[in-house]
Amino acid sequence: MLLAIDIGNSNISVGLFDRQKELKFLASIDTDSRKTADQISIDLMNLFTLYGCDIRQVSGAILSSVVPPMNFMMEKALTRLLGKPPMVVGAGIKTGLNIRMEFNSQQLGADIVANAVSALEKYPVPIIMIDMGTATIISYISEKRTYEGGLMFPGVRLSLDALSHHTAQLPNISLEHPKQLIGKNTEECMRSGIVYGTAAMLDGVIDRIRETLHGAEPSIVATGPNAPVIARYCRNRVVYDKYLLMEGLYTIYQKNRK
């Protein structure tokens, strides 16, 4: 079995694949760069116990991360648990993805690379890919199967937190489906604003990208923890793919295994 781990700014996603590429479980734990390798090992062992899986059956692991301070301890924990170091998405790893960016391609987040690898396997090009985590990142993959670039702005949760932290009378609220477009109290107004406002923003960007495609109809796929709430309010047809990142890591592992 293959253990796939993605370290994000807010959460660490942990997925376990069997030999048939079926996910045995997909779990999430908090990102905390203060944790030691022992603490991370305990967290991972607890997940295996929770889902009734045997960590001794894991034959390999792949790690992607956008939080460099956690990488060493995570690699140390995985090496201790599995008896060998994980494959790390980064320099020297074959992805099959062409990247057309002005900066070094290694600066592109490992999670975005994995998402793009998976999207190219599952959806027809061109592709508009939306990753809705701590940041919201819209990426464009052209008909040449090339990652052309994208847009980045604060994520839904980050925007809500900023609103409540910088205004004395606005509360912290959960991200949920709004009851209606026009809110009737403070919490409903905030919730409607963030959900409908983000959906409208995504629609606007999608439409502007579509105008550059000379008639080609893009696949539009969204992933990330905030995507299932927001995507349903977009007027464009947006496919929510919960497993896009994990399946991308699986594919990258298979491309690089000896």
What does it look like?
The chain is of the alpha/beta class. The chain folds into two domains: 2-88, 2-Layer Sandwich (Nucleotidyltransferase, domain 5); 98-247, 2-Layer Sandwich (Nucleotidyltransferase, domain 5), CATH 3.30.420. It has seven helices and eleven strands. The longest helix has 26 residues, at 186-211.
Summarize it.
It contains 7 helices and 11 strands. The protein is an alpha/beta fold and 258 residues long.
SSE run: EEEHEHEEHEEEHHEHEH
Please give the share of residues in helix: 25-40%
Assign the CATH class of the largest domain. Answer: Alpha Beta
Strand proportion, as a percent range, falls in 15-25%
Please report the number of helical segments: 7
Count of distinct structural domains = 2
Considering the protein shown, what is the CATH homologous superfamily of the largest domain?
A: ATPase, nucleotide binding domain
Strand order of the largest sheet: 6-9-8-7-10-11
Low-confidence stretches: none
Question: Which architecture of the largest domain would the CATH scheme give at its second level?
Answer: 2-Layer Sandwich
Instruction: Give the C-alpha Rg.
Output: 19 Å
